[in-house]
Structure formats: structure tokens, C-alpha cells
Design a protein that fits this description.
Residues 1-21 form the signal peptide. The protein has 141 residues and is mainly beta. It has one domain (2-140): Immunoglobulins (Immunoglobulin-like), CATH 2.60.40.10. The chain is built from one helix and nine strands, in the order H-E-E-E-E-E-E-E-E-E. The protein has one helix at 2-18; strands at 31-36, 42-43, 49-56, 59-60, 70-77, 94-96, 103-106, 111-120, 136-140. The strands form two sheets. Strands 2, 4, 5, 6, 8 and 9 form a six-stranded mixed β-sheet that branches. The longest helix has 17 residues, at 2-18. It is elongated.
Length: 141
Amino acid sequence: MHKLLTAVALMACLLLDTAGAGTTPAPANAYVYIGWPNDGQTLPAGRPFRVWFGLRNFGVAPRGVKFPNTGHHHLLIDVDLPPMDQEIPNDRNHLHFGAGETETMLELPPGKHTLQLLMGDDKHIPHNPPVYSRKITIYVK
């Protein structure tokens, strides 16, 4: 009986560890980052600026293409990470790059802004474990 309880407890811990994450696996060493602009950078208002996405130990595939260890970028602007077990929202704060893009031009109003990348699978759901960048802050003046 003790072995059965131990096995049940172990299974519960494993389920809790991955609860709230999508079902598409990602390697533990997958790494996404914002290559430009830099954290703390000030950018001129009224002009679009380039944002480019970096990725290591993971590949890019368009929406609808299910291939191991791949996904596509989502740029989060001025928001926190969404729920990791649901489709990433598609609005002005959650930009989807479902064609496999690795950069974009962005224009933001003057002020302080945050940017963060989150990889999504073929259905726009974060991977397990989720692959996301650190959040950076930029200033538009």
C-alpha cells in the first residue's frame, strides 16, 4: 500500500509541475530573446523602429505546421504573460507572427513600454515548458 501511495503522490507532483502549460513539448534549453532594441533603450517617438527576435535550441515554423521543437513568435507589449495552457490572445498587446517572421517594425506612443516574446505552437498555445524571453523596458520620447 505504501508503494501505491508513493506512486500516486509522485504522479500528482508531475501533473502539478506541468499543469498550466501547453501540451506541445519544448526542450528545456530552448531560449528566446529580443535582440533589438536593448533593455532600457530610448527610441524616438513618431518613427517605427525595428524589433528582432533571437532563438536558440529551437526552430521557427509557421502557424498550423506541427514539427518537433518548433513554434512561432508572439510579441507581448505592455502586458504580463498570458495563461500558459490557452491560446495566446491576438490583439494590440499580443502580436502574432504566425508566418514565421523573426522581426517586425513597431511604432509606439511616447512613454515607458515593456516588450516580451513568447513562443507558441502550431495552435498559438505556449509549449511545455513555456519558451519566453525576459521582459525588457524601452522608452519612447
